[in-house]
Design goal:
Elements lengths: L3 E5 L11 H10 L4 H15 L6 H14 L1 E3 L8 E3 L12 E5 L13 E5 L2 E8 L6 H11 L14 E6 L3 E5 L22 H9 L2 H10 L2 E3 L2 E3 L3 H15 L14 H15 L3 E7 L2 H13 L5 E2 L3 H8 L6 E5 L11 H10 L7 E6 L2
Parallel strand pairs: 1-4, 6-7, 11-13, 11-14, 12-13
Antiparallel strand pairs: 2-3, 4-5, 5-6, 7-8, 9-10
Length: about 375
């Protein structure tokens, strides 16, 4: 995978989820001044090690710094500058590395098998088991390690929790993911040219994809951190290509396949990558309308739930909000006899909408 090998860190003292020397080297290479680097490191360290907050909150706050950069001032009175800890646009220009047998001193000493570092920041923990030992053992090991009584603070920067062996392959989750919700990546299933563990490590930990998943496919949803399943990832990727070509399309879902997450992630991507974009989600059931409003709000994406067709059209005539939802049967007049005439009447008096509209029609 072209990662650097940092070595066996079993006997190395003061192993950390923020290897400041490695991060400083990377940021210096990017042209940041020593003052800005020192202040950015301080902000990252304080955010990652806030002992008054839960692991979920610390992880969420660190994620914001990784994704959006750290706002710091070189001197009092000067403007804020953004120190980007990870190069999102050029994944290959980040420093990817692994260390094995990383001894971490917490309330109790623990030793993750492999830690993945990006620019000196621990973003992945991988537990490996012999072929005769279940992956579940590795998953449970990481879950225990995340407890405050062990090395929970080490996981404040970790974005991927992985476990695998040669017979069962690989499972992945996030911090706080229960064992039963650890996922199996499915891609090129007919390819049996290598061990399943190697095959899927190469898929998920590919430099470009690792950064892409971190930036565009992670969700903090009301106290639960979520990673995408393979079909959600590929569905969104396909939709992105349609959007770039300015084409519509259909994503087929089965019950329980996670369409709400797909909508949230796709809407976030559209709004972030097109400053003129506005997203409107149309559903056909009141409970679904309420669910979508809840999911978006809990994911940190405020959404306006309109009360009628007229209300929606009024909202669309303004520049904000950029994210709206409505019920399909809020439109039209009851008792319309000639539907074609009714449509022509609507077309003859269109409402001016501000921005570029992207419509998600659910069922």
């Amino acid at each position: 995978m072209n990662y650097s090998y940092l070595g066996n860190w079993e006997d190395r003292t003061y192993n950390s989820n923020i290897e400041e020397k490695l991060l400083t080297t990377y940021l210096t290479k990017k042209g940041y001044s020593p003052t800005l680097i020192t202040k950015a490191l301080y902000e990252l360290r304080v955010t990652a090690n806030n002992y008054n907050e839960s692991l979920y909150t610390n992880n969420k706050n660190v994620y914001k710094l990784l994704r959006y950069g750290v706002q710091v001032k070189a001197e009092a009175g000067e403007n804020f500058e953004t120190v980007h800890l990870i190069d999102r646009q050029n994944p290959e220009k980040n420093d990817f590395a692994i260390a094995e047998e990383v001894t971490v001193l917490g309330s109790r000493e623990k030793r993750p098998d492999i830690v993945l570092y990006v620019n000196g920041i621990a973003v992945g923990v991988l537990e490996l088991k012999r072929s005769t030992v279940s992956i579940g053992d590795g998953i449970r090991q990481s879950i225990v390690n995340q407890q405050k009584e062990f090395i929970g603070s080490f996981f404040s920067t970790v974005q991927f929790v992985l476990a695998g062996n040669d017979t069962e392959g690989l499972r992945y989750g996030a911090i706080g993911t229960p064992e039963k919700f650890f996922l199996k990546w499915k891609e090129d299933v007919e390819d049996v040219s290598r061990l399943q563990l190697d095959k899927y490590l190469l898929k998920i930990c590919n430099k470009k994809r690792l950064i892409e998943i971190m930036y565009d496919f992670m969700l903090f949803d009301g106290g639960i951190k979520k990673l995408p399943r393979a079909h959600q990832y590929f569905g969104i990727k396909a939709a992105q290509e349609h959007i770039r070509r300015r084409e519509g399309g259909i994503i087929w879902h089965t019950q329980g396949s996670g369409k709400s997450i797909v909508m949230v992630l796709l809407a976030k991507w559209i709004l972030e990558n097109n400053h003129k974009a506005r997203v409107v989600i149309i559903t056909d059931r009141d409970e679904l309308d309420k669910q979508i409003e809840r999911v978006f709000n809990e994911a940190g994406e405020p959404i306006k739930r309109t009360t009628s067709g007229h209300d929606l059209m009024t909202q669309l005539a303004e520049a904000k909000p950029r994210l709206l939802c409505s019920l399909v049967h809020k439109f039209g007049n009851k008792g319309v006899d000639n539907f074609e005439e009714f449509i022509k009447e609507l077309e003859s008096q269109p409402t001016k909408a501000v921005g570029e509209l992207f419509l998600f029609v659910d069922e």
